[in-house]
Amino acid sequence: MSTRHSHLPFAILLMLAWRNIWRHRRRTLITLSSIAVGFALSVLMIGIGDGSHNSMIRNAIKLGEGHLTVQPRGYIEAPANHKYLADGKALQATLDTLDVAGRVEPRIALQVLASTASNSVGAQLEGLSPGGDQRVETLEPQLVDGEWFAAGDERGIVIGDGMAGKLKAKVGSKVVLMAGKQGGDSQAQLGRVRGIFDSKVDELDDYLILSDIQFARYFLAGEGADPELAPVTRFAVFLDDPDSIADWKARLKPALESNDVVVFDWQEMMPQLVQFVMVDDAGNYIFLVLILIMVVFGILNTVLMSVLERTREFGLLRALGLSRRQLLLLVFCESLLLSLLAVVIGWLVGGGTHWWFSTHGIDMEALVGGGGTAMMGTFMDPVIYTELSWDRVVQLTLIIFAATLGSGIYPALKAARVTPVEALRT
Amino acid sequence: MALLTLQGIGKHYRQGELEVKALDGIDLTIEEGEFAALVGPSGSGKTTLLNVIGGLDAPSAGRIQLNGTDITTLKESQLSDFRLFQLGFVFQAYNLVPVLSALENVELVMVLQDRHAKDRRERAEHYLKLVGLEKVMRRRPSALSGGQQQRVAVARALAAGPRLVLADEPTANLDSENATALLDIMHRLSHEEKTTFIFSTHDVRVMERAERIITLRDGRIVSDDQAERRQHEATV
Fold it and tell me: DSSP 3-state helix, strand, coil percentages of chain B (rounded to 5)?
């Protein structure tokens, strides 16, 4: 028996596969079009998802406590007004020596009862540094009445329109802010409404009172803090490069953490938002799976039809000396080429769609009919620009490629099972 | 010298409760260089016999020695390689790969044999010239007539340098003129290339060109003019 074996060079295999997929040009083009449209939809969905999530996260960080937060240990588990960083000056000095690439904003956050002659509501008082806080930059443009309090304003407060409604307060109204003390007593300060904002985020509009940090510091002094040490309840760290959170966290933790002080990143500070993004992402993936099913059946239909139509030809090839393995490779190669074409065309269409929406954006406010884009204590920008990271590009490409390639397995196995004599009888 | 020896070849299969004997105790010897026709009515076992000889179908009984190899003992992958290097096939129809030109179709088997590109191109062109298709060798099968397609199949079968070419009713779909032309080409090349041909046919005109006629009926050989002649020569 001869030891010579059948040999099918890869170039010939590719050439045969390429010509085979274009036998039915129209069918192949329809399949590729449906995959490209599906792919474009997936890219758009993922792009909108990532764009809106990132927008929400950026705004949550801006409105919240920064990319990183330095705060009293135990505060997040059980917030209380007596939990504060007594020596804010020393911590600020340490932060200064670390030369953080971004902004460090000292803040005082306290749970208070806000009262006017008409009503009383629970509220959070936020004392902000006069040097320009992210929150000021975000909310000042959303003033609907009055003006922002000036730096060093020891009585001025700014409230949301929701709270103004509940308190029946206007610009110039007096509001008494009362806070509980550790010993069970209470203390109060008188604030005067300088301005009213409408952020469209109910959690902020109904609950937040903003003041100069000095005003809030009176309450910490009431708890026994030494104002000379610039006590705060936290430092919000806003990094210039959001991708450097892990690096900066690793540098701040050993420098600042102690029995009394802890450093958190925004995910630890806002676990609900992280969960919301995960759940929403899962929804997007379900959509992606539906698209993939469509894509897989598209490829399966094309390759399987092509295999069933060519049974006799496969019999001929097997009779001529093509091995089962080579026949399997040939059909698999057809799926491979179809998958590659699908991914390339999919990216051309999907990438083009993404580019357009990443440049022109999608007016979400118009889409939701002016109902606002607030959720989870934050809000989406009114115009969302699709975002797609390289990780997503690789992920989507691999998913679509694997799905399309996987759909070629069954037809390839079916072709390889052909026995020459039965195939030639067809 | 015997190229092919069949001993007690049977091919049985069940059709419902009935056992069909497609081949029943076939003994046959084919010498090198013979141009032999298998004839007989439909269902007599011609195609089954060719399939069994070509290793496309396994016999239920008996042994087949082809060029010194008992092909009934070969595994499927070995049979595939055996067909590639030892056998050429011409089928009744749909002989060619539609996405390849005539030249590429002839080259395909030589590609599988791992022949050098220059060698296979020269051989393919040579054999296409021998079958008179030098002007249409770049055309795909869809642009060739039925007769031309069969001639490409003959060129492909011979270009790969087989010891034996099996042709299953190669003229069945051809008109009289094309059938005669194809048989003339096969006959001429059989002599020029010293290649053994076994072909099945119903066609009387085709039978007339055969040097040996083996008649099958109900899966048995009922006459073999060459064998009878040899037997006669031996007794005289």
Answer: 40, 30, 30
